[in-house]
Amino acid sequence: MISPRKLMAMAKKWQKMAGIGRRRKICLPRDKNSSRLADKGHFVVYSMDKRRFMVPLGYLSSTIFIELLRMSEEEFGLPRDGPITLPFDSAAIEYMVSVVGSHVSVELEKALLVSLENNTTVHGGLRSRTIIVQGLSSS
Asked: What are the beta bridge partners of residue 52?
């Protein structure tokens, strides 16, 4: 049988290892219906209008998302305790996610990247980007 003193020492050691007693608090802008964590195999980004997007990790290898994350870092810096915010509104992010998800041609992807780089406007001190892709089809 284990003595009470030894049992207390083991419990304290387990508490330290498990981090019990520490509180970590990260404030994220989120909807009431969304969970805090991303599903397995996904990551979360937010739009400028605070809409939450859960994106598959496989999209990180696409040149479009690499460019989006570079723009986010350029605009807002690297997030420390908060979420990754992309410098686009929710409609633009929905479009970009659908483009990456539908495995479009390289030409359309390049056109989207050129549009992302060239279309920046300033509104109230914040840069806002718009997407303009004309005359291209995703087929």
From this structure: 46
